Write the structure tokens for this entry.
Amino acid sequence: MTVPRFWRKQQSRYNLIGTTCSTCGQYFYPPRNFCPECRRDGKINEHKFKGTGKVVTYSIIRSASDQFSLLTPYVIAIIELDEGCRLTSQVICEIDAVYIGMPVKQTFRRLGTDGGSGAIFYGTKFIPA
Amino acid sequence: MRDVAVIGVGCTKFGEKWDTSFRNLFVEAGGLALEDGNLSGDQIEEIFVGNMSAGRFVEQEHVGALIADYAGLATDNIPSTRVEAACASGGLAFRQAYTTVASGMADVVVAAGVEKMTDVGTEMTTDVLAAAADREWEGIAGATFPGLYAMIATLYMDRYGLTREQLAQVAVKNHANGEKNPNAQFRKAITLDTVLQSTLVADPLRLFDCSPVTDGAAAVILAPLERAREFTDTPVRVLGSSQASSTIALHDRRDICTLDATVAAGNRVFEMAKVERKDIGFIEVHDCFTIAELCAIEDLGFCKKGEAGKLTEEGVTALNGSLPVNPSGGLKACGHPVGATGIKQVYEVVRQLRGEAEGRQIDADIGMTHNVGGTGATVVCSILGRV
């Protein structure tokens, strides 16, 4: 991913900042700028998530693309945040420690690099809470 | 809307075709379809081609014009359009061709699909396929495509008590069918042990739960039903074709184990075709991973959620069962050249309905296809029947 493309979403990725619709009260992470429920009547505001949630489902990735191949095996999970929305993230733990319903919290980690000598991308991953 | 028929079909052998280029794959499939429909190229009025990622697999965009050119139609200046919906690109091309003929815009229209995947390495392929999901919010976290389906499988097994053996049986059944299909990439039967002993790709999915990387192309030619006999003695009628979309990311689905786009496309096509589930003789579903076949059978309404594993174990979905699923061998054994798969499904249904599926022939009047893009963000379903 190129630097500007990553940088654009940096606040969201670093600090788990998503959005919320004040018309219906739904939370969005990844952020949405248009409420699927209220559409034109929606009022979207930034929202910083608490950063705690639980594992909805998971897998252990053994075979990855170039950017992630050095990390294998690693845990990938769909996490439901306490505010109610779901996201996809790595969970940093022993590969046999993860389970459905596992409480997790956000942590700041290196996400990847732009090729062999490019920028290093940081962002949010999760650890057992 | 006019009634539409398939008047000619063609498909290359699927596999790792080191000696065949992207454009030659398409030309081969198109040529076979023309021959089958007894057409000269002159009658072709329009082309739709499904292709997921020629831009990244062979660094070639502008695929519509390229294939019309190499199919020898450049001087006819016909419209030729590439359509893309990841692994559902082929199904989408078929539906576009169908609506074009049904609407009366054109009479003789080609729906094709092509993908050349082996010109790049495995890690690159993994990355290209991951683009079928949400690049910014799934891919960046390191979620591979098998990893996303694996997360469906993890939750499904936990919730419905699906066993690892039941899941493996999907691959065993599809390989048994693929063995009988001369176009299949893998013409080799396997056992439960083959699946259970294979390398883990993304837990709980193993190598033999995953469809392979494949080169291949397929083409079908559509015409108004009332003109079909000009070209062939065995036209197959398109009873309906539907498309549905859903969230691009798996994590945003209402239910992670249900492909709502499959439910919607399924309901729409049954309504359009005016047939019931019990009328369907067999289905070609999108088994990019073993778990996907089970979800497809359930989400199309052929059984309740959580029951497809048991049906598979009992042989209901086998070639001689009451609801044969993937007689071609499916994506697992026949191979999965992503843009071509949706057209290959139609090809298989037509060959079956014309009684030409030697060695794997099913006695049926109506067959159905189910083609998925990504983890279910696009689904295309079609129902075809004997005339």
